[in-house]
Design brief:
This protein is an all-alpha fold. The chain has 2 helices and no strands. It starts with 19 loop residues before the first helix and ends in a 7-residue tail after the last helix.
């Protein structure tokens, strides 16, 4: 199995253009498996923000447990 990788900008069209230099390297006939990977930057940013908020909440709870108010054990 041979892999060919290239990056392109999605425009909403129903057809994805294959760059000419890549198309020239492809076999003239046969089957190909296409795997499309898109950037989840928005989802990742939301996940990071949520993880950071959770980290801060967890850290605050640890501080209360490690250093209880005076007079309490």
């Amino acid at each position: 199995m041979n892999a060919v990788e290239f990056t392109l900008e999605l425009s909403g069209a129903a057809v994805l253009p294959i760059p000419r230099e890549i198309a020239m390297r492809l076999p003239k006939s046969g089957k190909a498996r296409i795997i499309e990977l898109t950037d989840d930057a928005t989802d990742e940013a939301e996940w990071r923000a949520g993880a950071y908020e959770q980290f801060l909440r967890d850290d605050a709870a640890d501080r209360l447990r490690d250093f209880p108010p005076r007079g309490q054990k």
